[in-house]
Amino acid sequence: MLTKRLRELQRAGLLKSAPARRGTPRSYLLTPAGRELEPLIMGLAVWGQNWARDMCFDDLDPGFLAWSMHMSLDTARMPSGRTVLGFEFSNAPRDCRRFWLVNEDGEVDMCLKDPGFEVDVHVRSDLRRFIEAWRGMRDLRAEIRAGRIKLSGPPALTRRFPEWLKLSQLAPFPRRRPGRENSLAAASAS
């Protein structure tokens, strides 16, 4: 699914594929046309965060989540060398229930197949709950403390995981539309 979307964006002239080193995943860069769209897309995204209907199950896209998270890890706070984060989501489609983020000294790769490295921090959660925490509607640290988002790995790393994971760019924008997500955000803020 992600590969199909990336090809469509390339054909539209919004992305270009960067040459990949042997054994590494292909990377993509925005073209000038893609960069010009950024403020327009961000404006629509903020409007959606404020006013769109509450997410339904079909809106939960683990591929988009993985891509977004890989673009926004705070690698400066992560240990030097390689750090592997493994994610496993219940209630996600079988073909994208698991993914990995591999940070190697500030270079982050997103893997939909096991990259073959030992996982440093394993994250397990219900997909909706994790997306709601990532979008700022739930308190990520509170969800981890309550065991609803489960982390396993060395305690020195699992304690720091919330520092590494930057929330969605839209997390600072409050929901304005009444509904379940607005109620969640209000409860999380109190």
Write the layout of secondary structure elements.
Elements: H1 2-11, E1 15-18, E2 27-30, H2 32-51, H3 62-71, E3 82-90, E4 98-104, E5 107-111, E6 121-126, H4 127-134, H5 140-145, E7 149-152, H6 155-158, H7 161-164, H8 180-189
Tell me what the CATH architecture of the domain at 62-173 is: 2-Layer Sandwich
Q: Write down how many β-strands occur, each being a DSSP E stretch of 2 or more residues.
A: 7
Q: How much strand?
A: 15-25%
The share of residues in helices is 25-40%
Q: At the fourth CATH level, what is the homologous superfamily of the domain at 62-173?
A: SCP2 sterol-binding domain
The main sheet orders its strands as 5-4-3-6-7
Mean of residue pLDDT values: 92
What CATH calls the topology of the domain at 62-173 is: Nonspecific Lipid-transfer Protein, Chain A
Can you walk through the features of this model?
The protein is an alpha+beta fold and 190 residues long. The protein has a domain at 62-173: SCP2 sterol-binding domain (Nonspecific Lipid-transfer Protein, Chain A, 2-Layer Sandwich), CATH 3.30.1050.10. It is built from 8 helices and 7 strands. A 5-stranded mixed beta sheet has the order 5-4-3-6-7. A two-stranded antiparallel sheet has the order 1-2. The chain is globular, with a radius of gyration of 17 Å. The mean pLDDT is 92.
Q: Notable features of this structure?
A:
single chain, 38% helix, Nonspecific Lipid-transfer Protein, Chain A, 190 residues, alpha+beta, 5-stranded mixed β-sheet, 21% strand
Task: Please sum up the structure shown.
The chain has helices spanning 2-11, 32-51, 62-71, 127-134, 140-145, 155-158, 161-164, 180-189, and strands spanning 15-18, 27-30, 82-90, 98-104, 107-111, 121-126, 149-152. The chain has 190 residues and is α+β, with helices and mostly antiparallel strands. A hairpin with an 8-residue loop joins β1 (15-18) and β2 (27-30).
